[in-house]
Each structure stands twice: as C-alpha cells, then as structure tokens.
Amino acid sequence: MNDLLNKLKKKFDEGEINKLEKINNKDLFEFIARYTEILNPEKIFVVTGSEKDSEFVKNMALEEGEERNLEKKEHTYHFDNYYDQARDKENTKILLKEKIDLPFLNVMQRDEGIAEIHSLMKDQMVGRTMFIGFFSLGPKESPFSEFAVQLTDSSYVMHSELMLYRNAYENFVKNSNVKFLKFIHSQGELDERKTSKNLKNRRIYFDLETNTGYAVNTQYAGNSVGLKKPGFRITISKALNEGWLSEHMFLMGVNGPNGRITYFTGAFPSMCGKTSTCMVPGENLVGDDLVFIKPLEGIPRAINIENGVFGIIDGINKNDDPIIWDVLYSDSEIIFSNILVSEGKPYWNGMGIPIPEKGENHSGEWWKGKKDKEGKEIPPSHKNARFTVRLESFPNLDKNALESKNGVEIGGIIFGGRDSDTWPPLCEAFSWNYGVMKGASIESETTAASLGKEGVRTFNAMSIMEFLSVDLGKYLQNYISFQKKLKKIPKIFAVNYFLREKDGKFLNEKTDKAAWLKWMELRVHNDIGAIETPIGFIPKYEDLIPIFKKVLNKEYKKEDYEKQFTLRVPELLEKNKRIRKIYEDIKTTPKEIFDELDSERNRLIEAKEKYGDYISPFKFYK
Ligand code: SPV
Ligand code: MN
Fold this sequence. Notes:
The protein is of the alpha+beta class. The protein has three domains: 2-67 and 87-238, Phosphoenolpyruvate Carboxykinase, domain 1; 246-308 and 399-620, Phosphoenolpyruvate Carboxykinase, domain 3, CATH 3.90.228.20; 310-392, Phosphoenolpyruvate Carboxykinase, domain 2 (Beta Complex).
C-alpha cells in the first residue's frame, strides 16, 4: 500500500499527504492511484471536512473563476455552458457486462464503456488540482447510510457536495474496511467563461458491478455531482438486490392533532409540485429529493440521504414560496447557478419583481431580446436555474428527523403527476398493491413553455424513469414484495394539483395542497372516514370544510368540491388502457400490476353503467 502512496507523493503539497496516510483502506488507495494515473492531475487535495479545507475549496472556486461573488457575502454564482444546462439523457448510460435490451434504459457493454470513458478522461487533469471528498449518504453509520468517495477537478462540484452531503473523512480514518460508492468526474477543457467546452464528448456512465459513476466534459450538477443522480442510479440497483427502496422522493412531517407528527415521502416528476409540497408553511421539512426506505423491525422507515437542497429557482416568488424566498435572501451560504446577475444581485424568471433588462447569464452578456444561435429568445435565467443551500438554512427543517440514524417512520407515500383531465386532486389507494400500481401509472404533461406542445403526456413511473438503472418489472416486483417485510403498511395516496375545467381553468389553487396534507395525515391514523369510489377513497365534503377553514382560512365551496372530485370515467378508462399497454410490453411486469389495473377497470365500467360518464362524488355517498 505504501508503494501506491509513494507514487502519489509528489502530487501533494506539504502536509496534505498526512491526511491520506491516516486512512488505511486498500480499495481506496487503489482507486485513487488508478485514477491519478489516468487523469494525471498536477496536485491532489484531500477534503477532510475541516473548516480550513472547505475554505480552500471555496477560495479555489473563486480564484479559478468557476464561481464568482455576489454582493451578499456567502453568496456566489456559477454558470454552466449554454448547452450544458440539464441532465444529458442521450449520453447517460448504464454499463452492463452483457448488453441486453431493457425497456427505457440506455445500456452499453461494460468494457467498451469503461474503455471509452477512460480514454476521454486521459490526462484531463494535467495542470489542475484533483479534489478527493469523503461523504456519507444519510446520517453517518446508520443502518441506512452508504459511504462514497468523489474525485473531481471542479471546485464548484466539490463545493456543492460539501453543502449537499455529510462529510465522512473521519469515518474512513476510523474504519479501514469502509465500503464505498466511487465517483469520478472531470469537467474537461474549459472555455474562457470557465464552462466545460467539449460537450460533444460529454459522457455520464454507471458501472453497477463496482458501484462506480463516471462523468466527463460536463459541469451541470445533475451530471457531475456524483452523490446525487449518478449515485441514485447505483442505489436503485443496490436497493433492488437487497430488498429495500431507493426513491426519488421528498421526506416531510405533517403536523396532526395534539402534537402528533406523521411523516410522508412523495414522488413527483420535475415541476409537478414536489418541492412546494415539502415546503408547505407550517409543516416540517426533512428532504426534497432522495430517500432510502427500509423495513426496520417491520416498520417502514425513511431517511433523506442529502444534507442540502439543489432546487429549481424558476418561478420562486415571495407569495407562493415564502420560506425559500427568505432563505434566498438570507445570509446563508448559497451557490446560484444559471441565473441573471446584474450589479452583483441575482435575478430569475418569475420572481415577481422587476428584472433588469441587461446583465450576465448562462449565455454570457445578456440583454432583453437577445437570441441564441438557433434564433430562440434567451430568457433572463435558464428554466433549470438552481440554488444550492444547506438544509440547516431552512427555518422549517425538522432537524431531529434529518439526523435520526434510524430514520423516521413513514405513515404515507404520496405519488403526484401533472394531469389536466384524469386524477382527482387527492385519493387514497385501497391497498399497498393498488398504491404501487398508482405510482407505476404516474404521467406528467409537458407545458407549452417547455416543449412547445402542450399536454403531451409522459409516462414516469414513480418519477424515476430518467434514473432507472434496472428492469422496470423487477423494480416494481421489489415494491410489491416490500409489503411482506412490513408489520405496519404505509398508506399510499395519489395527488394531482393540475386538474382543469373544460375551459382550461385550473380547478385548484396552488395553496390547496396544505389542506390535502392534513386530510392524509388524519387518514393515516384512521381519524376520519372517506368515500369509496372505483379509484380509491376520496375525502368527504364535510370533512374538508373545517380543514380548509383551519389551514387556509378559506370557505370551501360545495360546487368546487363537486367539480374537483367528479369521477371522469372515460378519461380514467383511457389512462388505464394506456398504462396497461406500456406494461404489456415489459416481460417482467408483476402479475399484481395487471390484477390491479383490471379490477380498477371493472370498477370503472360498473360505475359507468350505473351512473354515466361523469359521476358526482355525492353519488358515492352511502
Ligand atoms: C431533478 O431534476 O429531479 C433534480 C435535479 O433533482 S437533477 O440533479 O438534475 O436531477
Ligand atoms: Mn430530483
């Protein structure tokens, strides 16, 4: 082992090598030695998690220009290349020993993929510093957590990880046998704006056999921050093999009567209300993006694996998102990415205050009306512009839940989509399997703003389709089987904040979700009744009146309830057929999914025969 270290020695500044010498982990040294040889950095910097090391990383980001200061101390901004603003689906691939075709997955033969990525990484760090970061996904040394090591030449990436994850250097020092996920990132050659320039060679690959994630020629955090979405793909596969759930979900506590807190996880595709749900004022935030759920002594418990938020900033305004707004204007450490900067201040689309007509953004110098190479007008900030901030900066954080090594017991799981004409705002599945089927049926409609074509439904089971790394049928089988490990089964709810009237008007206000959460909280404990419909239990009108009054100080009208909860049978039958067709094409779809689809269909047909196509919820009152 010392030979390995000796070879690396000249890469370290004085004193730096001691940080590695304290660790005695063969796998780690081999990993570092191998990639040092390939990437060939001039220097290596070991990030121990000390204040001093974090300062070093932050200063380096500023010195090298990957980040710049805003007017407010502790606030910086970063730009990704104009064409590197989101995850790159096409060049994101799962490496498998045998290249088999799996529906929805982008698969590549493992040796070929590794050879390609190594050749793209060759000598990419010449003249640069390679950072080594040690992290824990989730509270350290808990029955849930996973350790991870990140190698990167981007000070912005390392800075982001120091805010988003728990540093675990000390755990590597204490225990020489720590097993860990491995992430290697190089931003590649940079242009004069310090953004990755060789985007045609951008690659994001995952090797599930060695739990390794690779990313090259990209800076966008969804590609480059190994512990986030690259790590998620690896843990989805790990969870499947070990029989637990690694999910794209928030984690929050909802306040019930007499000081009771009930925890929920929730999966929603991008821009469907995930962040705004876990940030509902008055409730308790634990996490906004990624959870592990395990059965501990038969109780389903969850942790947030992160320690910070990498959130969408587009549309955040004082009225709709008071908590995030205050955080963004606080003195907390924040990295803004791909926003508009003018006179040292950050601006973004839809912030509800006037935005300057010129400044600098992801396209460089920007002025109102500026067009890109494709002739498209460039908005002030990118739609996917983001903020990175520690969870401790949020006043609504449930710190105990975040730090709990055994996680928190989950009472309910929420699945949400963006659906203009099908699902009611809220319903509760009859059973675990029916709920899993509902999660497996999530669809999200594109908006006019994003793809030009409105209302295109995109299938997004459990909102993980972009991150799926295993056979979808097997993934669902694992969900179905999970129930058998439980003494207490969480309720599963389906929500839809985007239901519209025929004339296109939304049937709900953005704030209504605060009321739905309270109804779900009471249902978890069977504190109130519900109405049975062909698609699950829905709230009784008279139960919602006091909830709306108390939570939103709003008079909840009977006609609103009736419109929102009218069963739209033709649309529901269409959806049932659409989803069935998708699963028919997947050989491994569990029988339970088809059973649930079929019985839902039968219930819908029966109701239609009795009451017609559009059925008032009052018809189901017993
Ligand atoms: C998402 O899009 O779901 C995100 C951001 O959380 S990314 O890191 O790009 O996945
Ligand atoms: Mn996400």
